[in-house]
Amino acid sequence: xxxxxxxxxxxxxxxxxxxxxxxxxxxxxxxxxxxxxxxxxxxxxxxxxxxxxxxxxxxxxxxxxxxxxxxxxxxxxxxxxxxxxxxxxxxxxxxxxxxxxxxxxxxxxxxxxxxxxxxxxxxxxxxxxxxxxxxxxxxxxxxxxxxxxxxxxxxxxxxxxxxxxxxxxxxxxxxxxxxxxxxxxxxxxxxxxxxxxxxxxxxxxxxxxxxxxxxxxxxxxxxxxxxxxxxxxxxxxxxxxxxxxxxxxxxxxxxxxxxxxxxxxxxxxxxxxxxxxxxxxxxxxxxxxxxxxxxxxxxxxxxxxxxxxxxxxxxxxxxxxxxxxxxxxxxxxxxxxxxxxxxxxxx
Amino acid sequence: xxxxxxxxxxxxxxxxxxxxxxxxxxxxxxxxxxxxxxxxxxxxxxxxxxxxxxxxxxxxxxxxxxxxxxxxxxxxxxxxxxxxxxxxxxxxxxxxxxxxxxxxxxxxxxxxxxxxxxxxxxxxxxxxxxxxxxxxx
Lengths: 347, 137
What we know:
Radius of gyration of chain B: 34 Å
Strand order of the largest sheet of chain A: 1-2
Helix content of chain A: 55-70%
Number of helices of chain A: 9
Number of strands of chain B: 0
Helix content of chain B: over 70%
Order of helices and strands of chain B: HHH
Number of strands of chain A: 2
Oligomer: heterodimer
Largest sheet of chain B: none
Mean pLDDT of chain A: 66
Mean pLDDT of chain B: 84
């Protein structure tokens, strides 16, 4: 009864209903699934967050709806009518029906056995008139053969996987030359195309097809080079990071060294005074030996009260270094002489 | 800014667009010639757009020159990009080797950095204590 109602509403409503399995998301099911997940994680020794999918759930329970479906077994599926593959690999030029110009890149194991065959198909396709308007749209015809002939995953994974799996020791030094040749050929072929079109427009399609092949080859070579370039970029990034880290270390050390030198300088001057102050309290005690000048009519070496002690303290913090110490000494001498004169007068 | 490989691919695509634009320019703006003195160029009908939009010879020449220059410039850009592609001398094994080395160096450098930071913090604490005691005095 409920099912038929659902069907009716699905037919009648404008927007489609949510998938039927939304009813499986009950609190008890969620709870049960979380427990199963936890159990699975502890069995395999991996954190729970990393468990994407628990295999072997009972198929008749609603719990299978609580997790994403399994990967397609053969590695391919269709999306909007286009076949998709789990193995993202570069399709070799030959299988797309394009003639390969020049040697294959090191690392790619594409064989040129089908070369003769592809050239014939290529020349067949060029019998159709190619105007410059259709050129940009026909520049990437590789999608067409792919959609018609989905390759089995084993064969598509071979060329792409070979370059990443078995590391080659060959270098890419011929790539420069090859690419430069291709780009020069592009210009030359365009010139030839213009020349042909000015004389015999009907014969131009062959040249346009040549240009197309050249462009496709160029792009293909660049795409084959991509993994290499990615590794190269990784190396660059790591090098930059390394330099950065080293610079930071050096800067930190320099600052620490500077601060330590300042501390040592301060320590030779200040630290005894600091200790005295700490013992004597914050300037209120009159017992410190060095503070002592001012209004009290007592000769200098005799300690005086706290009122002047703070001013002495302020003055002392303001100056630093050995020069300050000497200045201090001279100050005391002058002061002492002044008081000495006073004493003499009074006496 | 994208990597050089993508730049190169874009440059090649632009070259193709320039080819098309150049072709269209010439196709559109060339003048008409007669095969023999007896031929005449039929005047274009008034209600139809003309098949070619003939430009004065000097303008046409100048346009051709400019387009040709642009093509050459683009070609030079492409060749420059090709010659500046990174790591053409390295094979895949070299690359993997240097990645491994860099990884180890990075680990060492990171440890050194952390030590330096710790050292700096210690000195900072000392300096802070000293400054505090001075201020109190």
